[in-house]
TrEMBL record:
Composition bias, Acidic residues: 237-256
Pfam families: DUF2125 (PF09898)
Species: Roseivivax marinus
Record region (Disordered): 237-257, 307-329
Superkingdom of the organism of origin: Bacteria
Name recorded for this polypeptide: DUF2125 domain-containing protein
Bias (Polar residues) ranges: 310-326
InterPro entries on file: DUF2125
Amino acid sequence: MTAAGARTTLRRTAPSAPKTFRKDLSMIRSFPHAGRIAGLALACLTAPQAVFADVAPGEVWSMFRDYLVRSGYEVTAEEAETGGDLRVSYVTLRMEAPDETGGVLVVTMDEILFEDAGDGTVSVVLPGSIPAEISGMEDDDVEAVRFEIMQTALDIAVSGTPDDMVWDYTADAASVRLAELVRDGAPVSREDAAATVALEEMSGRTSIATAGDGGQEIAQTVEAARITYDLAFAEPATEDDAEGADAPATEDDEDTVPDRFALSGRAQDVRITADSALPEEGGADEMAALLDDGFRVGFDMTYSDGETEFTGQDASGTSSGRTASNGGSLSLSLGEDGLSYDVRAEGMAYAITMGDLPIPFTAEAEEMRTTLQVPVMPSDAPQDFSLALALRGVTASEMLWSMIDPDEALPRDPATVALELTGTATPGVNMFDTEAIEAMQAEGRAPGTLDTLEIAELQVSAAGAELTGEGSFTFDEDDLETFDGMPAPEGSATLTLSGATALLDTLVSMGIVGQDEAMGARMMLSMFAVPGDGEDTLTTTIEVTEEGHVRANGQRIR
């Protein structure tokens, strides 16, 4: 039983965040807890359909509180029972950033109600608006960032058992909004700092189960009719005068024109699935230790179609654009099996207008895809890795072609750029253990070894010409002398180039390439390539031998 007015405080240090993307946009990098706010928003917006079960209000709060603590929050609240219900008041969630970004995230809720529905389920009532604030960041000028997590008609029902609970939920809308940004002691106007991300007509299910090792297994599914986002940021204008000038700066000076950027868009028929494993103990403040203890997280999102619009402004002028796609997906996962990333979009269309271009640039693409898979845990045996980049079926607008090639001398076939690399590597340390990596580097040792590399796909095609290739290599980590500190490779790659002669002749006739340049290109090709099987086809095989010799079509060049 929970005594009326009892106060509880639980804490656990947050895991360290990777440094990726910290310098992409100066405004965005001021928000080191943005991902945690998004995760908290998803956790708070958990809602219901009744399922036969047997859970009590106190048990639901206990598991939810444990989930927050395992996620890195210090939880403070006052608990009071009224009849069979539980009222949790003055709720404060606090998290300190564990890395050099600094800052403290604080989320507050006046109260959360856990009401016995009388059928073995519990109804959870969250505030319609939940404020959150990040302060104490090691940023030169941003002092505080205040967010608001909001929901409309949120309905949550919890069923199951004390060790395996299911949160079913529905809501008309749920959103996270930037409420205020404080810079240099003053709030920034909404024109210069605004951000809202919203889900509409959403429903979902979250299950939280106690694992055999004492940790928690979490599985989530969210469906929404659409997701919308609206962002607008501006860098503050400087007051520096031009060098050597005595007059005050004006809006005509390049240094005093603020850089502005606005982005808005939507995606339809959004479906999100996620699963994670939170260990009971250990690795509280380091991702490396969390992975050692079995931490795992996976995220998948699909959508049917989407569009984005953006505008940018700086001293050189204004640009704007619009992109659209017929659907796509995003997948992320991290655990002892490695780090993986997969983003895909289909049926894309682009329209971009730059201040110094007389016409908008428009293009379409059939597919864009980027995938990455790398091992992260130390191993005695080689582990698989892969990287793939692809932009397929790219076509430019007829208006753009008419400016470049009004006589239609060049083939206007869709262009493609694709590369896929696979291989094996042996990590020597946990790839998130920065101290171990720095120690190995200080000793002149690499944190891992590259064992094999395969060119699974290489394709570049445009204007009637195409380059394809494939190959495979092994690497000798014990031989760092043959190739000046690089592990000695052994293997071969074969490249095939078709349509190059015809394309070169066309470019010469158009005046884009001169006769001398064309002759030099042909001489280079003849040195490293031989005629292939088809018309206007060249091929070359580059081989690296065990002795360190490099041969092109059997001719030694190193």
